[in-house]
Write a structure and sequence with these properties.
This protein is of the alpha+beta class and 80 residues long. The chain is 19% helix and 61% strand.
Length: 80
């Protein structure tokens, strides 16, 4: 799995108080699903947003094999 190395630096550089509040986790076999809400304020516009989000991790021998993110990206784009 290849991660973008600067994702957290970019979030910190472009957003104030960007966070993911997890409501719950669901695990089944080699899959872990977390869902909740992203929120933050885009620095350039000063606009606050909230968006529903889900993360899906696929594991292999206890290590992350893949990751998918599902988010209401319209809410994010509207803030930007």
């Amino acid at each position: 799995m290849k991660l973008k190395k600067n994702v957290f630096a970019r979030l910190g550089g472009e957003w104030n108080d960007y966070k993911f509040v997890v409501e719950d986790y669901v695990a089944a076999g080699d899959k872990v699903f977390a869902y909740g809400t992203y929120s933050g304020t885009y620095k350039a516009s000063g606009t606050f947003f909230t968006a529903r989000v889900a993360h899906l991790w696929i594991l292999n021998d206890g290590k992350i094999k893949s990751f998918e993110q599902f988010v209401d990206s319209k809410m994010v784009m509207d803030a930007m």
